[in-house]
Amino acid sequence: MADTPPYLDLYQREMGRQRPHHGYLVGSGAPLALDFATYFVKGLNCLDPRGVQPCGQCYCCLREYMAIRHIEPEKGQITIDDIREGSDFLESTSVDGNFRYKALIIEQAEKMTSSDAVNRVQENALLKTLEEPPEGSILFLLSDVPSFFLPTVRSRLAYIHFQPLILEEYRRHLMDLQFSENEIQLLLKVADTSCTSRDDLQFIVQAVALARGILAGTLDESSMQYLMDNADQWQRILRVFHVYFRDALVFVETGKYDKVYKILPCSPYRIIETLQDIAKIRRILSTTHSSPKFQMLSLLSKRRCRIA
Prior knowledge:
CATH superfamily of the largest domain: P-loop containing nucleotide triphosphate hydrolases
Number of strands: 7
CATH class of the largest domain: Alpha Beta
Shape: globular
Strand content: 5-15%
CATH architecture of the largest domain: 3-Layer(aba) Sandwich
Strand order of the largest sheet: 2-3-4-1-5
C-alpha cells in the first residue's frame, strides 16, 4: 500500500501529461490532499523513478522537504506576507540544483482573508505568480471551499476533486488486513494511507498519547523517550498532532465528543497556540537543518509540559 497510494490513478493521469500544470486547486482540505501534493512533487523530482512513481530512496526523494514550502493559517488567516514569502520561495534560486521543481502548498487556502474584502489582496498577489509562473514552479491550493476563490484565480488552476472513494478504498484494504473497526477509524482519522501495518498503528497510538500528554501538560518518562527516539519521523508525528489538536478545538467549541480518541477539556486558546507552534515547527524543519529533537523539546517547553 505504501507503494500504491489510493490516488495513484489520479497521480498517473497528471504525470502522463507532457508537462504538469503550473497550478492546482485541490478540492479537499483533508490530509490526504496534502499527501497527494507532496507525492506529486516527489515524483517530479525523483532521480530514479519506478515508471512514473518516485523511488523513495534517491537524493531528492529523501530530501523532498527542501523543494516544498508549506503555508498554513495562523490565527485563522493567511496574510499577504505569507503569500509574498511563498512567491519569493518559488522565484528563488537557492534550492539544491538536483531538484527540477519547487512547490508552494497552501493548506486551508480559503483562509486568505484581509480587511480589504473588495480587492482580495492575497489572491491578487497569487495571481501575479500564476500569470508569470517561475520556471520549474508549481502551486497547490488545498481547500474544502474551491468556490471561494476569484474567477481569475480559478481559471488559471487545474481543478482536482478528491472523491470519498479514495478513503473508502483505504478502508477496504485495512479490513482485508484484519484491523478492528476502532483501529480503522483511528487510521482514517489521521488519513495517512501509507499506514498498513501493526507497527504503523502502534506509532499513531503513541503519537496520539503524546498529543494528549501535551494537551494535559504532563508526559511520562516512557512517552518522552519515545518522542526523542522517533524525532526523525517528525513529519508523521506532527501530522498526528495537527489532527488531534484540530479535533480538540472542534470538541471544545462545539461539545461534539469524538469517540475515536479521548479528548481532554482544555482552553481553546491553549489549543490554538499549540496548533500555531506545530505549524511553526513544521515550517522550520521543512526549510532548515534544525534538529528535530531540539524542535520537539522546544514544543514541550513552550507548552510547559512536565515530565512525570
